[in-house]
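Hi Q.,

Before the meeting this afternoon, I wanted you to have the adenosine-5'-triphosphate prediction in hand. No need to reply - just skim if you have a minute. The sequence and ligand are here:
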Amino acid sequence: MTAMLSLSDVTLIHGDGEDTVTALDKVNMEVEAGELVAVVGPSGAGKSSLLAVCGALISPTSGTIRLNDLDLSAQSPRRLTAIRRERIGFVFQSGNLIPSLTSLDQVRLPLTFGKVANPRDPRELLAEVGMSHKADRRPHQLSGGERQRVGIARALVTRPQVLLVDEPTAALDRQRSQDVVALLAREAHEHGVATVMVTHDHEVLHHCDRVLEMIDGRLLPAESNASV
Ligand SMILES: Nc1ncnc2c1ncn2[C@@H]1O[C@H](COP(=O)(O)OP(=O)(O)OP(=O)(O)O)[C@@H](O)[C@H]1O
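Predicted structure with the ligand bound:
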């Protein structure tokens, strides 16, 4: 079985000359379709850098990143933009919604940037994340958890192969954190999305299929899901 997302010996060095930081140090990672993988680790360990290279936002200094059978390093910048739009979904800490748009229009937005082969229905998706009753609300009329749900729906509307999630529970209370990560797990499992979630929140790890730990740019299996 081919991994949906695969990193081989990926190194990312920020800066140049003597002033360099090795953010990722020969990272190897494989994420299957339908799998939710958590990445934990201390501040500065390289977690955001990992999401950035997986999302084709930054090219690694060396190593290979494959999305299904596609080698990202072999793609032009223009093609990478199309790959990000068509194949990758991003979910950020606070939902990153556009203040003037309703929930439904936030979810429709990725479909307005160009043709999408097989989009999900925005209304159905909003219902699936439990937000159809607030389809006409704007972000300031939503709670943090609700904003996060809309952000997740927006990231999934193009049917991405890979979903990259950065600290989705940072602004949420305990129960809402559980609900949001349970939603990510359900979407990953039911729709075959290879999902990588960076988190500091150890209480949500039981929803994840695997937990990896990043330390000083190196990625290791976490010792046990219960203890990380
Ligand atoms: N654009 C950049 N230029 C130079 N150094 C950078 C840059 N981005 C990140 N770094 C450095 O790379 C290392 C990894 O940073 P990264 O943001 O990936 O860590 P992180 O694990 O996401 O941290 P946090 O949990 O605090 O968000 C850090 O030492 C950071 O200072």
